[in-house]
Amino acid sequence: MSSFITSTAVAALSLNQIVDAFNAAQELLGRDSGVKKFSDKKTGLARLEKAQAELVAMHGQAELVSDEKGVRWDVESRAARAEARTLSTLNLSAALTILSEQNPKRPNSRSREIFDLYTGCKTGEDYVAAMVKAGHPRKLALSALHWDTAHGFVKLG
């Protein structure tokens, strides 16, 4: 079980844990410049705070996590994890049915072109494959499929 470490809990980390967290941040930042130790805890915490600010600038967010393996950085946002869980609930092997009689998307828009790709697809997997073949990322295909099922334009199953 992992837990996010609050800023007050960071101050309670041991000097070795601060070194581990700092070195993990350096690795995520693409640097080979890890440290073996800090001269004191105050210096370690200051450098750790600076490293976290750099991670936030690079990834949009960075949280220190503690689990049975030690401390590590989580740079994937909670919103992204929630979206991934939502998108993964789609049953892509289920039959795909277009519920809208005509394309509900705005004329001459990218979303209209994407909606047109439903034509001829028998399953969600077929639609994702058609999107990828058309040069769109898989994530966009899943997002569009999720949006269109949530709004009643198409149905899986």
Helix content: 40-55%
Would you tell me the structural class of the helices and strands? mainly alpha
Termini, distance in Å? 35 Å
Question: Strand count, sense and closure of the main sheet?
Answer: 3 strands, antiparallel
Q: Provide mean pLDDT, rounded.
A: 85
**Rg over CA atoms:** 23 Å
H/E element sequence? EHHHEEHEHHHE
Number of helices: 7
What topology, given as strand order, has the largest sheet? 1-2-3
Ranges where pLDDT stays below 50 over 5 or more residues in a row are: none
The domain tally reads: 2
Describe the global form: elongated
* SS elements, strand count: 5
Report the portion of residues in β strands: 5-15%
Structure description:
- This protein is mainly alpha-helical.
- The chain folds into two domains: 3-76; 83-156, no CATH class.
- The protein is built from seven helices and five strands; from the N terminus they run E-H-H-H-E-E-H-E-H-H-H-E.
- It has a three-stranded antiparallel beta sheet with strand order 1-2-3.
- Strand 2 (63-67) and strand 3 (70-74) form a beta hairpin.
- Helix 2 runs parallel beside helix 3 and helix 6 (124-133) packs across helix 7.
- It starts with a strand and ends with a strand.
- The mean pLDDT is 85.
Brief account:
The protein has seven helices and five strands, in the order E-H-H-H-E-E-H-E-H-H-H-E. It is mainly alpha-helical and about 160 residues long.
List the helices and strands and how they pair.
Blueprint: E1 3-4, H1 7-11, H2 15-28, H3 41-59, E2 63-67, E3 70-74, H4 78-87, E4 96-98, H5 110-116, H6 124-133, H7 138-150, E5 154-156
Antiparallel strand pairs: 1-2, 2-3, 4-5
